[in-house]
Amino acid sequence: MSIRLPFTKKKTKEIESLKNTQNIPNHVAIIMDGNGRWAKKRSLPRIAGHKEGVDAVVKTVRAAHKSNVNILTLYAFSTENWKRPQKEIDFLMKLPKEFLHIHLPELMERNVRIQTIGDFEALPEHTKEAVQYAMNKTKNNDGLLLNFALNYGSRYEIIQAMKHVVTDVQNEKLHLEAISEEVFDNYLYTKELSDPDLLIRTSGEQRLSNFLLWQLAYTEFWFTEVLWPDFDEAVFKQAIEEYQQRQRRYGGI
Ligand code: FPP
C-alpha cells in the first residue's frame, strides 16, 4: 500500500510556563515509543505513526527550549531497529531529512545545536548528509543541545569504548591503574554530555531497551501510558513537574 504523508510545519498550542523554575533537569532523555500502536488504533500503516511521531519531536523540542532544559536526547533509531521490515527502516531513515528540511530554520532561531550519538558511519548516505549539514549549520549555537540517538545501542557503545581503552593501555597512552569511571566516560559517545537527569519512556513500556545503560545509573525515570505521537508540551511539563518533586540521593541519605 502506498500512502501520501505530507510533512508540514504545524503550530503547536502554547502551554503555560512552569510555575516552579527551580530544579529543572539539565539533561532529559526520551525513549519515544508507541508509534506503531498509535497507527494500529487508527487502522493506519505503522509509518503513519512514525510521521506523527515527528510532530511530537517538534513539540518536545519547543517545550524543552521553553523549559530551559539544556540537553534533550531522543532515541530515534536503535541498533536493534535494523530487524524491522526494510520499508519501515527506509521510512525511518528519511525522517531526519524531512524534519530538518522543514524545521532547521526554527532550530536556528531557537539557538538549538544538533548532535548525534550512535554508529553514524553505518547510516545511509542520504541520512548522514542531511544530519551532517544540520550539525555543521548549528555548531555555533549554544542553546538547547538536541541530541539524536541514531543507530545507537548501549552495549555496542560500551564494547567499543572498552576496545579503545584496551588499545590505549597497550599503546601505553593509558595506565591500567588510571582507569576510573570518569576516564571511561571519556570513551563513550556521550563524553561531552552530562548524564541524563530525567528519562522519559512513553507507551506504558517500562524497560531501557539498550539505551544509555551506563549513563542512566542515577537518572530519575518517568513512565507514561501516552503513545509517542500523542506526546506534547503538556505531557512534557507534567514529567518535569514530577521530576521537580523528586529527591535525588545518589546512594546517600
Ligand atoms: C518506537 O515506536 C519508535 C521508533 C523506533 C522510531 C522513533 C522515531 C520517531 C518518533 C521519529 C524520529 C524523528 C526524527 C526527526 C529523527 P514503535 O514503532 O516501536 O511503536 P510500537 O511499539 O507501538 O510498535
Describe this structure as you would to a colleague.
- The structure is a single chain.
- With 253 residues, this protein is of the alpha/beta class.
- 40% of the residues lie in helices and 13% in strands.
- It has a single domain, classed as Decaprenyl diphosphate synthase-like (Undecaprenyl pyrophosphate synthetase).
- Helix 1 crosses helix 2 and helix 3 packs parallel to helix 4.
- The site of farnesyl diphosphate has 19 residues, from helix 1, helix 2 and helix 3.
- Homodimer.
- Its cofactor is Mg(2+).
- This is Isoprenyl transferase.
- GO terms for molecular function: ditrans,polycis-undecaprenyl-diphosphate synthase [(2E,6E)-farnesyl-diphosphate specific] activity; magnesium ion binding; manganese ion binding.
What can be said about this structure in brief?
40% of the residues lie in helices and 13% in strands. By secondary structure, the chain is an alpha/beta fold.
Do you know the CATH topology?
A: Undecaprenyl pyrophosphate synthetase
The level 1 CATH classification is: Alpha Beta
List low-pLDDT spans.
none
Our Rg estimate from Cα atoms comes to 19 Å
CATH architecture name: 3-Layer(aba) Sandwich
How would a textbook summarize the main sheet?
A: 6 strands, parallel
Q: Percent helix among the residues? A: 25-40%
Task: Give the spatial strand order of the biggest sheet.
Answer: 3-4-2-1-5-6
Shape: globular
N-end to C-end Cα span: 58 Å
State the domain count.
1
Quote the average pLDDT: 95
Topology (SSEs and partners):
Elements lengths: L26 E5 L3 H7 L4 H21 L4 E8 L7 H24 L3 E5 L7 H14 L6 E8 L1 H17 L10 H5 L12 E4 L18 E4 L9 H13 L8
Parallel strand pairs: 1-2, 1-5, 2-4, 3-4, 5-6
Pfam families: Prenyltransf
Function: Catalyzes the condensation of isopentenyl diphosphate (IPP) with allylic pyrophosphates generating different type of terpenoids.
EC number: 2.5.1.-
